[in-house]
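DM between two lab members

TW: hey, do you still have the Histidinol-phosphate aminotransferase entry open?
JB: yeah, one sec
JB: this one, 360 aa:
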Amino acid sequence: MYIKDQVKKLTPYKPGKTVDEVKKELGLSEIIKLASNENPYGCSKRVGDELKNLSDYAIYPDGGGSVLRNSLTDLYQLAPEQFILGNGSDEVIQMISRAMLDSSKNTVMATPTFPQYKHNAVIEGAEVIEVPLVEGHHDLDAMARAVNKDTAVVWVCSPNNPTGVSISEKDLKGFLDQIPDSVLVVLDEAYYEYVTAEDYYDSLKLIESYSNLIVTRTFSKAYGLAGFRVGYGIAQPELIQSLEPVREPFNTNSLAQRAAAAALKDQSFILYCKEQNRIGIEKFERFCKEYGLNFFPSQGNFILVHFNQDADELFEALMKKGIITRSGQALGYPKSLRITIGTDEQVDKTLKAISEIISH
Ligand SMILES: *Cc1c(COP(=O)(O)O)cnc(C)c1O
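TW: and the structure you got?
JB:
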């Protein structure tokens, strides 16, 4: 059978152990999962209420996602034609890659950053140009310089996963001004709802001025709907139109569309999660300073802490105490852990467990 060369070289995504697997293996009754940046508070109660009323399971979803699209239109005060819905923002990344990348093109991104940009670019056969982060920040000037006549897409992640560092308005505008109109800039804002930085930009305003900009956001993080798989892209209508042909007709399912639309209407839940998250981050920062640990200042719902020792060993030690984090080994930071900010109680338990491990 013919398999594309570049696909043969890729390794499939390796999911972490499930909570039940870890419980069974270690004989623990309680597990705190802080590995995937899920919302520790779950989702808005409105979601459950909405889904109770759904029973049309035999019917295909609304391929245009009109209910969700209208909710997005209301919230952001943009036109319905400015959104493309995806089965997670992962799928929006895939659609962009499918529409714009092939073996005659290259694509520019930071490293380390969210791995799906590279993964999809490789599948499409495009050349990948990776520009190292500087202190957890995108090196936007170097990224702009890396763009050449064959560049089709530039990926920018802000706040960046796994470092949590966001980009300032001044830096982002300076960058966008250097990128030719013919090159797409993808601004991945999976953690947008958590950002508190005062120098953060208003990406929806930027879309008005830059026809080559698409912003991606998701219901998987602050909205607490990772299990439903819904994300979206926002751009000028012409750009969205050019992507629509690669979208599968029923890519977001009926339950997911309704759940997301209901969740959007509960902005007070999002605000609560944002505030709690900031309190948790500040607790982590104080702890790190007290214990002499370095970290990147995070605008997401996670923090990358540098331990100066093997991350896999720390990961194992924390798992034995019932806390699942993400080892930096596979993320480009072999001596760091990426830890999702849990509830206040989970943060306290995590910090206690870390202090016990590192003071041994
Ligand atoms: C979690 C995450 C996504 C993927 O979100 P889904 O909508 O669940 O596919 C995209 N980008 C970044 C940076 C993420 O951390």
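TW: got it. The chain has a mean pLDDT of 96. Residues 37, 88-90, 114, 157, 161, 188, 190, 218, 220, 226, 231 surround pyridoxal-5'-phosphate (CB under 6 Å).
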